[in-house]
Amino acid sequence: MEEHPIDARKERILRAIIDDYVLTAMPVGSRTISRKYETSLSSATIRNEMSDLEELGYLAQPHVSAGRVPSAKAYRLYVDGLLSERVQPDPEARAYFSQRVRQMEDVISCAAAAISEFTRYTAVVMMPKQLDLRVSCLQLVPMPRGSALLVIVTDTGAIRDTVIRVSENLDGDALYAISRTLTEHLAGRTLQEVQEMLGAYSRQVGGDDRVIQGIADLAARMASQLAFDTLTIGGSQNILNYPEYSDVEKARAFLSVLEEKQRLMALFAGQGGAYGVRIGPEMGMEEMTDCSVVTARYRAGAGHQGFVGVIGPTRMPYARVLGALSAIGEALSDMLGE
Amino acid sequence: MEEHPIDARKERILRAIIDDYVLTAMPVGSRTISRKYETSLSSATIRNEMSDLEELGYLAQPHVSAGRVPSAKAYRLYVDGLLSERVQPDPEARAYFSQRVRQMEDVISCAAAAISEFTRYTAVVMMPKQLDLRVSCLQLVPMPRGSALLVIVTDTGAIRDTVIRVSENLDGDALYAISRTLTEHLAGRTLQEVQEMLGAYSRQVGGDDRVIQGIADLAARMASQLAFDTLTIGGSQNILNYPEYSDVEKARAFLSVLEEKQRLMALFAGQGGAYGVRIGPEMGMEEMTDCSVVTARYRAGAGHQGFVGVIGPTRMPYARVLGALSAIGEALSDMLGE
DNA sequence: TGTTAGCACTCTCACCCGTTGAGTGCTAAC
DNA sequence: GTTAGCACTCAACGGGTGAGAGTGCTAACA
Hints:
Two copies of one chain form a homodimer. Chain A has helices at about 10-25, 30-35, 45-55, 70-85, 90-100, 105-120, 170-185, 190-200, 210-225, 250-260, 260-270, 320-335, and strands at about 60, 70, 120-125, 135-145, 145-155, 160-165, 230-235, 275-280, 290-300, 305-315. By secondary structure, the first copy, chain A, is of the alpha+beta class. Chain A folds into three domains: about 10-70, Winged helix-like DNA-binding domain superfamily/Winged helix DNA-binding domain (Arc Repressor Mutant, subunit A, Orthogonal Bundle), CATH 1.10.10.10; about 90-130 and about 230-335, GAF domain (Beta-Lactamase), CATH 3.30.450; about 135-225, 2-Layer Sandwich (Enolase-like, domain 1). At the A-B interface, strand 4, strand 5, strand 6, helix 7 and helix 10 of A face strand 4, strand 5, strand 6, helix 7 and helix 10 of B. The structure holds a DNA duplex (30 and 30 nucleotides).
């Protein structure tokens, strides 16, 4: 077999086909290219080139008298071209994100919302596991009617709280005293260690071991939440905006894949570089053969890395999406990266 | 016009038509009723009765040679029949809810999830506004790297927190001292008052008015969140399970109505009794003419009342849905009531 | 050798039309 | 009041047809 590297013109035509297809979602014919993109060439010439591109596996024909549709291989080429240049963070996306971050509590779910609203695709944000978490502070905040809010803060700044019952005669100062003791003894320990050590302290807090129990529960919950990478999804309904999913059955299949976060996680597993694009069949998941996943990395301090991403039809304006993700990834890195 | 009260047999037939239509989503013919439900009557007799029922506005024909479909008026009659008896809380629904409540933090969103999963419809949970909120405690919890977690607790037990920057040389004790002062001065005040009073204290906290600013921000956010009834929605995609919405356009319209929480809120506004059923056109919203909303009230302590509900196609097993909502409403009342 | 015009060919899509079957309304008999 | 019977209506289905879009191929041209 002789080599068939595609020349500059073929590449230009291929790019035009992809652009047009992304725009219209309809198979692209030779006339369209000759009139809208390569006005110096006739449709017949384009036809010849398209025929070549098809033979090389870059194009496919839904049926003989339809135009051509780019294949996964074509998107791959296109995307590699994009990624070989510097991805330009989209300032508009960043502004969008910054504006919304004030309103919502959680930066991660906020990022997911911002991405999905901005790109109009489904957004995924992955938050890396944090195994090496150590308790930095532990505090009880008085609440009405014999309750208290237990707050645990880790050295990485993760916060969790829970309401526990305490004896009614503990006032704010008493709770603070307990908090001090607890913090003194537990600061610097990992969550696992905290759970193990709790038995020993139960005497020192006045026999009221609901506090101890509460800490143990919360520490356990925190540990289990943070021991795994977590995935947040935003704008899952956005898929309905695209004609690829105008069949309700398909849409439902897509949405149910989103429920299985464990499987989705696999998409980020082997991710090396700053950006990742997985095109349809490359993902090896039956249900996602006509989806693409675009991701950008962000830094969550201390060597941890997470990903922000978009899931949409393969027919996607990759440059625009990469720009948006890049901007939001940067913003997240700034916020979480210390 | 003479009166046309429908007799017992007509009502039985109407009920059979509704039951069958709820099950199959297909227009119901006279033969079906005569064979499956009223075996002692011939289809011709049923036809006569159906013709009467149509004239009375209880049935409609999509086209002349199709069977009949119940009208909103029919559902209304049917539902009024249900509501005149005692609604039986569904113990299975309650078990389902209780089982899940452990796993999730927030009872409200947990309820929404449980309802939608159990009924397979879209769930709404309304949480009443809490205008009379007063600050009960205010505390700063030290965090690494010159941050602190600001926690505000109200007398009703609502909690909000936010991370603020503070000067690096404030240790835990110093933060507690500030917390004490703040609590002393602000406890018992409403959130509005707190916002107004903040200026006055800015000197007393060592000139570091990031703390003041943080409190003001958080108080404002809290006030705005709690000053209005809030709506939580669960299982919005469930609508895709029903043939009524196999048209993507319709599904999208439905989903986008769900986004406009303000408008949805109106559906609960005039709700008086323990249960409410709004059928299609009764809601006066163009987009919801073929939806129904079923709600049950719950008590959130201190005279506040909220609603749990389900939104689905008019063709809905109302008895089952009412039973489930009743059970979950009871469970919520128990949890939030005290 | 690359480009282009022309033409026959293919295939989808939209439309028409007849057939089928479900379901009705009406009438007359029980 | 109930029922059998019958004529009628209409959606749904399937086959047939024509228009349109787009291709591949060939031959001519630069």
